[in-house]
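Input.
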Amino acid sequence: MKLKFVLVPLAVLGLAVGSYAEGFSWVNPSQKNCVGYGGKIKEGKCEAEWSNAKDICSASSARLPSILELRKVIVDCGGVVRDYDNNKVNSSYQSCYKREGFTFKSYWSSSTHMSDSSIAWFVYFKSGGDGWNARRKTEHIVRCIKGGQ
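Output.
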């Protein structure tokens, strides 16, 4: 029996992501939206708990990005998801995610953990790592996305 492989563009699977795909743009919430919906401004960035992050993005006429969309930034910048040591010393990767408007801190995604919906995924750009935290009492940076999904 012959096996046939078919390459399917990510967009067909609903996975086209980031500012790199046509029709997508990253949005930094305004101070008014951030603070007005439960977040706070730290070092010029909006930080909030997960439930507030979703509201902040909605008030910004955008949405919280999925974990796949945030991981795509890592990959498109030349990093490797969870390759912590190499990402930290990859100067090209380090300058790319910053050029795209992200910092070395952690960013919330809209994706909840498969086995426990009380926790949600985040991405830590400095190391290219991802993980999950409790949606309540944990604050990460909020950056929203317009378009897609």
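The longest helix spans residues 50-59.
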